[in-house]
């Protein structure tokens, strides 16, 4: 599904590459944790998979097609098949829970009828039925994160990407959030999560891809956060 081949990413003004010669493959329906210290290249890898950025050298391919060859229309359609969950929620404060989730469909031209069907279903899936008219400021941090997940899954994506999604949550909310990701993955959606939450990674025993200084140093099925375990 996703093939990253000999990828190096260099940002302007930076002497050290954010990613340096990284190669890996992620299959459809996998659950993958990206781990490593700050600055290891996790967020850069997420941005490349999301097609927010392109590699300096090497290639990122989806189903055999290099993203660098995507037309503007193909790139837009591809991004529609992915859902992104952020650490800082990025909810629109002036919009209700329903409106925040509906907005993800409105921007891609979904019909009002389909929006009315999909938004309540997505909110129910993340345990927020009955919160449709609430505003973000009226929700707990964990509930705001669930709105972010509902916004990501309402498009029925092939891939869910999370960039430190539990970074601002306490342990209980982090555990609940990861359990929700696992449920989504069980339905066939590929889930890729960049995280520092070592306890969750160790408990869930999913595939672990470890980065350090822009290089892939470990790739294990049913892995742990640190290879010393």
Topology record:
Elements: E1 2-9, E2 19-26, E3 31-35, H1 42-49, E4 57-62, E5 65-66, H2 72-80, E6 82-86, H3 97-106, H4 112-125, H5 141-153, E7 159-163, H6 171-186, E8 190-194, H7 198-204, E9 207-212, E10 215-220
Parallel strand pairs: 3-8, 3-9, 6-7, 7-8
Antiparallel strand pairs: 1-2, 1-4, 4-5, 9-10
Write a brief structural summary:
The chain has seven helices and ten strands. The protein is an alpha/beta fold and 229 residues long.
Provide structural commentary.
This protein is of the alpha/beta class and 229 residues long. It has a domain at 2-81 and 157-220: P-loop containing nucleotide triphosphate hydrolases (Rossmann fold). Helices cover 34% and strands 24% of the residues. It is built from 7 helices and 10 strands. The protein has helices at 42-49, 72-80, 97-106, 112-125, 141-153, 171-186, 198-204; strands at 2-9, 19-26, 31-35, 57-62, 65-66, 82-86, 159-163, 190-194, 207-212, 215-220. α3 packs across α4, α3 packs parallel to α5 and α4 packs across α5 (141-153). The chain is globular and about 45 Å long.
């Amino acid at each position: 599904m996703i093939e990253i081949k000999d990828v190096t990413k260099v940002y302007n003004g930076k002497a050290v590459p954010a990613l340096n010669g990284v190669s890996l493959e992620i299959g459809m329906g996998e659950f993958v944790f990206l781990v490593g210290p700050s600055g290891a290249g996790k967020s850069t890898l997420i941005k490349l998979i999301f097609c927010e950025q392109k590699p300096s050298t090497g290639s990122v391919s989806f189903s055999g097609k290099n993203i660098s060859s995507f037309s503007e229309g193909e790139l837009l359609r591809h991004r529609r098949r992915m859902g992104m969950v952020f650490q800082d929620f990025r909810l629109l404060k002036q919009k209700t829970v329903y409106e925040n989730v509906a907005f993800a469909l409105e921007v891609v031209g979904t019909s009002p009828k389909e929006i009315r069907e999909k938004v309540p279903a997505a909110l129910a899936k993340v345990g927020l039925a009955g919160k449709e008219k609430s505003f973000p400021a009226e929700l707990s941090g964990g509930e705001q994160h669930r709105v972010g997940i509902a916004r990501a899954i309402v498009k029925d994506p092939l891939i869910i990407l999370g960039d430190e999604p539990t970074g601002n949550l306490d342990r209980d909310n982090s555990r609940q959030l990861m359990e929700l990701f696992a449920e989504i993955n069980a339905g066939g959606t590929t889930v890729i999560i960049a995280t520092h939450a070592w306890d969750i990674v160790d408990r869930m025993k999913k595939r672990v891809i470890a980065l350090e200084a822009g290089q892939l140093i470990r790739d294990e099925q049913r892995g742990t956060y640190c290879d010393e375990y």
